[in-house]
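note to self: dont lose this again. the chain is below, predicted strucutre after it. 301 aa total, dont forget to put it in the shared folder this time
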Amino acid sequence: MYTSSLNKNSGDYQQETPANTVFKWNYIDCGYPMVTNLGNSGDGVMATEDKFGMIFPGPNGEWYSASAISIGAYTAAGKTPQVDGSVPATDTATTSAGLDIQMDCETAAATGLEVVVGGGPLGGNHALTVGTHHGYIDATFITPDWTDFDGCGIGWRKVEDFNDGHVPILDAGSAADGIYTDFAAFGAMTDTDIRTMTDKNDSGTSTVTDVTAVPVNGQNMRLRIYVDSDGAVTYHHVNNAVAGAGALAAPAGAAAFSFDSGDKIVPYFFSSSDTAAADVLYLKDITVKKYPGTDAYATQV
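---
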């Protein structure tokens, strides 16, 4: 049985079935993620771009994999990604709890994560093939102080092995080379703005747009990037709503961007600290959907 809807903002699309869900996790409804042991040169010590994995329990007992790299050096004082805070029975727009993804923020600046959800960075069932599929990644984050984090958001990128140079470019929110050949990212870039950043066919210069939205201390920041079957990317956002809920709206001023037909792209989220500070950055809810065939709904409602 499936549902159909013209409302892309709600997350209801043509032929909605369990097979359309690539990844689904919520800090209240699901079990706590399992993280592989962290450590390279020593227990709990990692260099930038060291790889590790995570398993996320879904809401119906299913399991989803994720592949991650450390951004910046991670010391034995770092914090393994774990559910923290006082988890309530029902989320509110200001509940400070979830999966803490700050990594080594307390020790050093510019530390964080890049995580490909649903599989690995080189593709698989979690990947969309432009021209064959359409879908989205949607995630909700919160922190008491956004000035402690330069980077936090979501994206789609062409299949390629991890490169730790990507997230620092997102942190800066600048038009420098975003490293990956093709990508579209959306989220908090610098500690004051929500921005979009894209690059196509390895141009060497990213396109950055400071959209009319800002992250707010102590409020949920929900983001969505939708990719049509023709490769066109649209962005949606809402602050101060329950995790995974609220009325998403397209931020003003985002530059138009499309992936090329045939591109295979994977979903990811990222984080990076601005300064060494005793702070938390929580992922509260994340969903990735993948639909077969062409998108029957050409307009956003």
